[in-house]
Amino acid sequence: MARVKSSCAIYVVFGGRKVKIPVNPEEIEIKCPTDHKTYDVIGLGEIVVPRRPSLREVSWESFFPGDRSEPYVNTGAGKPAGYLESFKTAMEEKQVCRLVISGSGVCDTNMQCVITDFETKNKGGEPGDLYYSVGFQEYRPYAPKTLTILKEGNDGQGNAEASAESERPVEKPVLRVGAPVVVNGDYCYDSYGSRPHGTANNLSTTVTRIVSGNPYPVHVGHYGWVLESQLQIMG
Prior knowledge:
Distance between the termini: 40 Å
Number of strands: 16
Largest sheet: 7 strands, antiparallel
Radius of gyration: 24 Å
Structural class: mainly beta
Number of helices: 1
Order of helices and strands: EEEEEEHEEEEEEEEEE
Shape: globular
């Protein structure tokens, strides 16, 4: 039987090793929680104070197939034990991974993350198949500082000095194909700005093409072409 072709592909990058998920899940859940605070104000009642978005969460359920010749299995699939070892090692070694979902439209994702949950189970009558559920949470790099305190002077008195170590370099987001972005404003039919056919309002998607030199050089998701100034690069 001919292999079923799917435009959607899911990859997890473990320490520089890119692994393609062998069977696409039926559904992918993406949560974008907020950290808004609510307060009770005399004379007004309850109010909400907007805060920055919290860390994104992505999860799904699927299985690692024992029979890799089935038509629904993506090309290049490996044995279930190999996937199991990759996920277990990432959790045990506290690895920061990268999750890439492409070709799915609104679910397209490219983010650094950690694995927060990974469960497996075997089902009777399906020997060789390993069912699993997995959850990821967005990882944001941080740069801590170290202080050195207390240096004794010549007078025997303790003079406190503080020095801050230089910050670790933080990755600066770069506009590239595959970069996750938030889009605002009109998107057009082509890179010359012809026939605007929709308006984005804090639309989360990914960059799919870049044509340098054209008036609207960036194509996003399956939507259309936009100005670089309409984008906020997220990672």
